[in-house]
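Memo to structure team: turn this sequence into structure tokens by end of day. - J.P.
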Amino acid sequence: MNPAELPLPPLREDLQILRGGTSYSGAPVWVVLDPIRNRFFRVTYEMFQLLSLWNRSRSLNELNHALRLRFGRETDPEEIGMVMRMLDANFFLAQPLSGTWRGLYENATRRHSLFMQLIHNYLFFRIPLVRPERFIRQSWPYVTFLFTRAFLLFAALVGLAGLYLVSRQWNEFVGTFPYVFSLEGAAISVLSVVLIKSMHELGHAYVAHMFRCRIPTMGVAFMVMVPLLYTDVSDAWRLKSRKSRIMIDCAGVVTELCVAAFALFLWAFIPDGPLRSAVFVLAAVGWILSLLVNTNPFMRFDGYYILADFLGVENLQPRAFRHMRWRLRELLFGVGYPPPEPFPPRLDAIVTFYAICTTIYRLLLYVGIALLVYHFTIKLVGILLFAVEVGFFMIRPVWSELKEWWTMRQDILRSRRTYLTAAILLGGITLLAMPLSTRVSAPALLLPETFVRLYSEEPGRIEQINVKRGQTVSKGDVLFVIASPTLVQDRKLADIEIALAERRLARIGANSEDLIQKGVVENELRRLNAKREGLAAREQKLVVRAPFDGHIADLNSEIVPGQWVSRKEQFAYLSGTGAAVVRGYVYGEDRARVEAGAKGWFIPDDVTQTKLKVSLTGFAISGARQIEIPQLTSQFGGKLAVHPASNSRLVPVSAQYAVTANVTETAPELNQTRSGILLIDGKAESLLARGWRRVLTVLVRESGA
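Reply from structure team:
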């Protein structure tokens, strides 16, 4: 039998074909409504021509005849084959092409295994809660005035008045924010956010109802177990006007802004209490979250649908990704395939840019979510969920694209661009694998070989500061004088106790009982004298003297006379007059690359100072438990990341090894320390090896080994 005379499989009788406005190019588009699944499918005008005549034609010949009479064109077997595959894939046919629904069911079951269902349900699932159609219809007459231009203008004026009133009490308004983090404040915040998000969804529902769209369900969706309210307004696809759809898209955010405007105004009149805190959340927190989340076009929230309807590109993300992948293939391989859709030049650039930005945003978002899941769950569960998210969101799309390249392999191998791309890729890998890096850098400090920190060994109050930065001092000079009222009080108390003990000893007689008592008092007197001597020694330490000749290399600018200081708090650095040395810290991963005797340079941070040749003389064999040079730490503006620990210790965040180097050339006279970078000649290492070692370090650390 002639293929053109074969019978066409009939379409389902319940399908509806509706006019859907125009596309971005101005061409008419149509919508196919599947009422059973409540899904809408946009089709081109050419597809509409075929579908409108499909069930009236028994064969391809009859369909071609009807097309000529009705639309003045013909179809061909290739177009019919493509259309039939689309109809079968979307369940538009009354009977599947396989001949039975069982094969279709088995195929669907295979494609959605239990494992994939679990993954998909963990990442995203919906729970319909209510069917709001009846409520929306009955309540609409009472809320119609809220969806008028006059009310929007009134809300804007109320918001401006609220801003003025709040500006008069700004400190009090801002002071409410810390309350949000209390237990009661958190509960009020959660309830307020639930309220405003419910009003957000009602805003979508009412505006959709205003344009005669159905609202079949409202409920809660979970994205990576984070709850989000949703409203099903998919019936808006039947609207011809893009402006109407954009109004539905914007309704939720506009509703929240109106609520925030009235809440801002009411806050100025409500007395302190839970109600005022709830109004504060509505006025200052809810709408900000809404703008940050709902207007984001890179996720499928309101902002995405607003952008899609504004551009006139339905299903924007899949179409943009498909277009970006085509551009990537053409850039890499230049196979000359036609684009999936011939967008106009301006829209082409917008769609491509949007796809690139969305890819970058999603990559950062998914990595962040994966790390949060890993760090805030049980380690075993965290590893599993981390692997699921990385695999589902990152590895799976890459694998899908690689499979597409495999199907194009013959055309790819025939293209000259492929070999140019391969050469560039190979060159890049070679550069990464070549051990080009021979320098090890370390934050360091240039200082005299004789060097000491000056500090008080007792807490007290600064009485005198007798030096300034760069001043030359001699051994024994008094540099700082500290007063300790506590020590003075303890010494006076010890003097009184000694005087009392001496008087008791003088009154003791010569009988046997008195002699026994005399021994006890003498022991007590010896203890008190020892205590007084210890207090006197501690008082002497309150006077900080120069231990050798030198000059003040650095002075703590935060200490002033009259200020109280703690034990071991640093006052200054005293430098000797000998040779200069460089002290610094090498990152743990670079420790194995340096050896004693290695040459290098010290480059000061001050660009007016000259660099100095150095020779590495020593390095620690174990990591530093604390950083001994505060100037190099992040707490004091340095490059070493630290976190404060007990006793004012500066503990490095990552492994650091102390190194020391001698200056091998005549160094200029040092009036103060100089911070800079120590560059040491080390074993050559490639960027690839460095990256792999860091990966192994993270794996070992997280495994607890």
